[in-house]
Amino acid sequence: MKICIVGQGYIGLPTAALFAKNGCEVLGVDVNEEIVKKLNQGIAHIEEPGISDSIKNAVEEGHYHASSKVEEADTFIITVPTPYLKEDLSCDLTYVISACKSILDVLKKGNIVIIESTIAPMSTDEIIKPIFEKKGFVIGKDLFLAHCPERVLPGQIMEELVNNNRIVGGITEECSRKAADIYRTFVKGEIIETEAKTAELSKCMENTFRDVNIALANELAKIGAEIGVNALDVIEMANKHPRVNIHSPGPGVGGHCLAIDPYFIYAKAPDVAKIIKLARDTNNSMPGFVIENTGKILSNLDKEAKKISVFGVAYKGNTDDARESPAFEIITGLKTAGYEIAIHDPHFDNSEYLDFDEAIKDSSLILILTDHDQFKDLDYDLLCKNMKTKIIFDTKNIIKEVPEDFTLINYGNLYK
Ligand code: SAJ
User: Fold this and answer.
1) What Cα–Cα distance (Å) separates residue 404 from each residue in 70, 105, 408?
2) Neighbours of 83 (CB within 10 A)
3) Residue 248 CA: which ligand 1 atom is closest?
4) Model pLDDT for residues 281-313, shown as the tens digit of each residue
């Protein structure tokens, strides 16, 4: 079976590697020529456990090759980004539409087309299906179209793609059945067949559930700071209840999913999606909360403070992914407030970021914005020798203890 996967990013590439590993002939298509070149040399361009070896093997064994052009295949899978439009917060289908149009000339009767990109409810029925119908295909009869949202967590993609459950939402039952069979090639989790619109809204709602719960935790952090209660202790206590799971407060919600998908639902039903919008607003307010409190901490503890060391720009720990990261708004805000900012993130190869030693020199405060493992156990001797004042503001609650001469501030003691 030949599978053509359009979009070789965080989802498309690992998916391609798994189909190739399981005996399929895979063509990975990407608009970026540099990426295509690297992939054909067996070099993965994303940081994700297990992906490098998988792609190297797939290329060496001749099961995978990349190209900037599509070719005939049995199944086409679309894994391109879906940003949101800033004007009306709706789902921007530009890349999905162009990917669908790009395969029109090579499509044959009997082909299966699967959209994996996260899309707003009704997109498959109202926007994607007509693209293929215009070309003369009867969906469910001579072309099989389904939405099968990816649901994997960056950092665990290779493992989760195999073991997670999959929702397959077809335009017809036959579309669902055929698309589900494709995933049976390597998926060990349950494969659930449903309608396209149900699959679309389920996927958006999963990330919305998480976003709303994080907003609740962030609101609790603000309440704790306001009324003088340790919010982190509250979370620990409340979560001892068997049916309570308060999430973790942080510097804001980043990534290409949680910070975007809730808007897809909101834009479809703004009059009723009230909690969803409020949660987005609350999470978007967190960079401002961090900026404000960093200023307060420094004006209390180090009136001469000039330099802040920002630890982490990735939106999540142990990755090199900075999409929608709240770190950028915080950095800009602190710069505007007049601070000198030294950025350190060991996962990025960026000439503007500094290594640990450089970043901490004469610093008045270390501001932790990402839960990278490297930040959980800092070299306090080196910090002690190099920092101007020994203050750490840990917005991710990853540092449990510091030496006596350090001041550790987190969302549990902001009120002090
Ligand atoms: N965050 C918090 N507090 C928490 C948990 C997360 O502030 O308690 C923040 C993180 O720091 C990060 C953001 O939320 O900035 C999102 O991180 P994440 O690790 O929760 O999620 P993503 O965006 O990396 O992946 C999500 C996953 N969805 C769910 O867990 C419901 C993943 O399964 C999806 O496949 C992915 O979105 C996607 O592509 O939609």
Assistant:
1) 61, 68, 10
2) 15
3) 8
4) 999 999 999 999 999 999 988 888 889 999 999
Residue type present at position 156: Q
Cα-to-centroid distance, 204 and ligand 1 (Å)? 12
What are the pLDDT digits (tens) for 228-273?
A: 999 999 999 999 999 999 999 999 999 989 999 999 999 999 999 9
- Alpha carbons 162 and 156: distance in angstroms, whole number: 10
* Pocket lining: 152 vs ligand 1, CB cutoff 6 Å: yes
Residue nearest to atom 37 of ligand 1 (CA): 257
What CA–CA distance (Å, rounded) separates 34 from 43? Answer: 11
Is 316 close to ligand 1, i.e. is its CB under 6 Å away?
yes
Which of the following is catalytic: 4, 100, 148, 257?
257
Intervals of CATH 3.40.50.720 along the chain: 2-203, 230-416
> What's the whole-model pTM score?
0.93
Task: Give the type of residue at 67.
Answer: S
Share of the chain above pLDDT 70, in %: 100
Homologous superfamily assigned to 230-416 = NAD(P)-binding Rossmann-like Domain (3.40.50.720)
- Please give the torsion angle defined by the CA atoms of residues 53, 59, 64 and 68, in that order, rounded to the nearest 10 degrees: 100
Is the minimum distance from the CB of 246 to ligand 1 under 6 angstroms?
A: no
Verify whether residue 24 is a known catalytic residue: no
Is 257 a known active-site residue? yes
Find the 207 Cα to ligand 1 centroid distance in Å.
7
Question: What does the pLDDT read at residue 89?
Answer: 86
CATH class of 2-203: alpha beta
From the CA of 338, how far away is ligand 1's center (Å)? 32
Over residues 207-235, mean pLDDT: 98
Atom 38, ligand 1: residue with shortest CA distance:
257
